[in-house]
Amino acid sequence: MKKIIIVISAMLSFLFIKSMNKSIPENEDDLFKDNKGEEKQLNLNTAGAETLMSIPGIGPDLSYKIEDYKKNHGNLNDLNELLNVKGIGEKKLEEIKPYLKIE
């Protein structure tokens, strides 16, 4: 009985992982292109922590700090306001700016 449960668990895990991979482009740059191949940017004011983690240079810790900042200060009017988030300096801001916009 234990073997059957283990096999079923493994199969379900495999199917789940396989279904998740279908939604992830093979090339990281494709995350930021629309269906016509044109560059796109994430709206910082509507993107949640999970979405922000898809940006190169933003990991879980920083994405949640950005989300907390937005909760405490409201929508941002300028990307330079990210300099107020602990962990984002001039260098990091320049690294992530091409992937973000404010709307």
UniProtKB/TrEMBL annotation:
Listed GO biological process terms: protein secretion by the type II secretion system
GO CC annotation, single: type II protein secretion system complex
Naturally occurring in which organism (per UniProt): Salisediminibacterium beveridgei
Keyword Cell cycle: no
InterPro entries: Endo/Exo/Phosphatase_dom_1, RuvA_2-like
Full protein name: Late competence protein ComEA, DNA receptor
Keywords: Receptor
Keyword Transmembrane helix set for record: no
Gene3D superfamilies: Photosystem II 12 kDa extrinsic protein (1.10.150.320)
